[in-house]
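Budget justification note: compute hours in this period were largely spent on complex prediction jobs such as the one shown. Inputs:
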Amino acid sequence: MVGDKNTYYYKALKSILKKDPKIVLLIENLSKQIGVKISIVGQDSKLLLGCENKYSHGFDLSKNEVVYGVLHADKEQGKLLADYVVTLVNKELEKKRIANEVLGLYREINMIYHFSEKISEIIDEKSIAEMALHEASQIMDSTHGLFLIYDSNLEKVVELSSHGLSPNSSNNIDTQNQILKELIKKGTSLIVSQERINNNPTLSHLKAVMYAPLKVKQKTLGMIILGHDKEKEFTAAELKLLTTIALQSAVAIENAHLYQKGLKEAKEKEEAIKIIHKVSQKFVPNEFIKSLGKSKLTEVALGDLVEKDVTVMFIDIRGFTSLSEGLNPKDSFLFINSFNKKMGPIIRKNDGFIMQYLGDGFMALFPNGSQSALRASVEMLNELKKFNKERSSKNRLPIKIGIGMQNGNLIMGITGDIERLDAAIISDTVNTASRIEGLSKHFGASILLTGSCKDNLTHPEEFNFRYLGPVKVKGKQKPIALYECINGDDSNLFKHKLDTLITFDKGMKLYFKKEFAMAAVTFQQIVKMNRSDHTAKLLLNRSAHLITQEIGDDWKGVESITTK
Amino acid sequence: MGKKLLIVDDESHIRMLIEQTLEDLEDEGVELLFAENGKQALELIKKEEPNLVFLDVMMPIMNGMEVCQKVKKELNLSCVYIILLTAKGQELDRQKGLEMGADRYMTKPFDPDEMLSIAEEILSI
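Corresponding output:
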């Protein structure tokens, strides 16, 4: 209630005399009827009704012995009118009291409305607790508040927030933990009796206490305790309000917990996806995924495809079958791994990527074209020399590899079905490259490439080539020009091939001119100089063989090779 | 000239509740006026030009929307600050009210503290 009681009563008096013309008229009529002249003066001597004339009789207008005005009358009967005015004022006061109560309810409704609106947006329990206590203290006359929650990890009741000074608060929470735990378990709300407050030393600083449970669904998460250090009685309405705040807080805390849990799970899943992504990158080359215009493997879908111009390279370990004969499967595997481990980085260094491992070799793609593919080939052969040195120091046989490459158009895509997806490339280029690699064994060359591959080189002067003529590989109608790149050969062999480049070329020309005897002699010269020149040896044999054969006019020197 | 505040609601108890909420303003010299329907309200607004009107939307004989529109759009009394009182959750009312030129809206049941502080703010008390 605002102000002192007499001002409050006086206001009611003013209110009925100043605002309600009907009442004034009624009083005036009544005074005429009974023939009494009156005036009403407020406690501040201000004239509220009638004229300034001083009448002989004065009647106090009062409530509970508090005088808020005087009714002056010229006759004793003025008392009747005074009583009437007092009754009217009392009615007015009653009306105001009820109105105030309703306004109080309005306040509560709005507070709860705003509270639940605000609290539903908070996602950490400490802030929820703080807000709940703040709102509770705003609307309910209290000096102390305590927001407790049962921590299932610590297996005890802990404070989330408090207001008002409580001596030894945290200590008390610990010593009273068992009682608090039971109260929370019970899940009831209560205005604590005076007797119980007096008997509990931890509540000695309080005169009034009530509490409400933080109940959500079937569980109770904790409780809110509200106290006052002055004599007062918490009302049933206040307890109800506290219970409402507690219920809202409990729901908010439950939501906060769910949110945190969801957040944690989402983070864990994110982490797992990151790892999967990292691992899968190694299984499916990232370049492949990037080529499809995607950034993550998870974005790739069945049917995604892209068309590209690339150089396809096949590498094969020669004679792996016989090599692995003496090894158990595990050792074979370890051997392959040690080989791949050395070659992979060279491919990547030259902007290529390994599309597929093929047991005793692999297929690599070079989106930048054959210059990088050829550089990688030479580097790999150099690496192999070191690898073989290591092997020979361990009394192991050196290994040989064959490299074949072709460039052209290919389609990269995702194939399979909903359950099983894989990266795939479909292209004639791939088949040809594989066949060329097969030819390297036939020709006894380390690196073989096609004419279109050679044409694709941006710096052909970095390398030295021997033209091996047109060949027709299995399954192809069109002959393909075949070149040998000699730069990866052992230094002796390389020097030999380099020295005999012109001679070799001469031999080939004689061969195409069908001058097989002369060709044979030329190749013979080369072979004599180095018996390891298997390509020259092959051409020597081929020329020698053709000397005795009948050759048609349509012979163009195309070698058909039917082996894989 | 003293400041005037008009309270418009067809329900007398609401008028009383608003009066009670704002009674402290009387000590500051603000005159409280009352109307129980839109027609009465419009006449009072024309005559008294109050600084602030708390205007209920749902009323017989000219509702709050019409009053608002007449005051703001026809009479061009922009100096009369109108706060519409709508039931909670009636989003449409709120939207329409603001279109009709209302300066603000409050939901019923109103928050007494909020109502008083808004009134004080607008009347610069």
